[in-house]
Amino acid sequence: MERELTAPVSLTLPDGTLNPDAIGWARRPLVDTSGIGGRRGWPRNKRWEYWNVVTPTHVLALTASHIDYAAVHEVWVFDRRSQQAWPAAATVLPARGATLPASLGAGPARARATGLAIDITPGEGAVRLRAETSAVSFDVTVTRPAAHDCLAVVVPWSRRRFQYTVKDVALPASGTLVIDGQRHDVPGGSWAVLDHGRGRWPYDVAWNWGAGSGVSGGHTIGVQVGGRWTAGTGSTENGILVDGVMHKISTELDWRYDLADWRRPWRVTGGGLDATFTPEYDRRASSNLVVVSARTDQCFGTWSGTFDGLAFDGLYGWAEDVHNRW
Which structural domain range is residue 260 located in? Predict the structure, then answer.
């Protein structure tokens, strides 16, 4: 079983290596990551904020990141009915135009690049997400109830390679979306998911990540599952949120799917979880700059299944397969 952290702790020691006392998981963002960034650990430092908001009609996503030698930002809007997407991305070399807080909630995040602007502003019990491109803009407030658990995990590959991730699922969201001048509501019943990352990564990494949020059987449920990148570390990023309480899964899960036939249901099982993900759309992207490359299949659809006897169905979200050399 993984250790549950219950008190604030620094991710790094004074020499920049991993603090052994930080290894574990927490229900709150207790880990101070101010030691990540700057000259120490260059060029392995990775810092990012990713937010995804699912409405009854659209998916909104933004990424603000700094990976030492580049700033990589993205705004993406997707119409669930027509399956039309409005993407805007920027890779800025050398890294500039990105402001990220030292630790989660310690201040705003901001990204500026040709063709896009992103602002993430934390407040009391809420976070405001604003993004703008030539085609779309959105202004969304994400509410975070005081008793709502997240899943914060320190993943230790070694003393010099490690990651702190905060996955926060099933957060209520509301606001507005504008596409080509036409306004759309982000109404009640919309859900937000956060992926906050700070760490020092190996060069070549592959991972799975899945998330889903919604109400099923009278319960608010969030699915948070991962795989591959945590194997052998003793840590996992797996858990099921039920009515604001995180139920940690400390075993590696079994992922079964076929990217050559991505429409077939994906299966994710283990640790009391028996889940099926039914895809509707594959957001496929790849880039190859010789030394740096990335390949992503992020499928959107619905989660159903059981967790320790609790059944759930119709939770909209995604499951992804990613391989990066970065």
Answer: 9-325
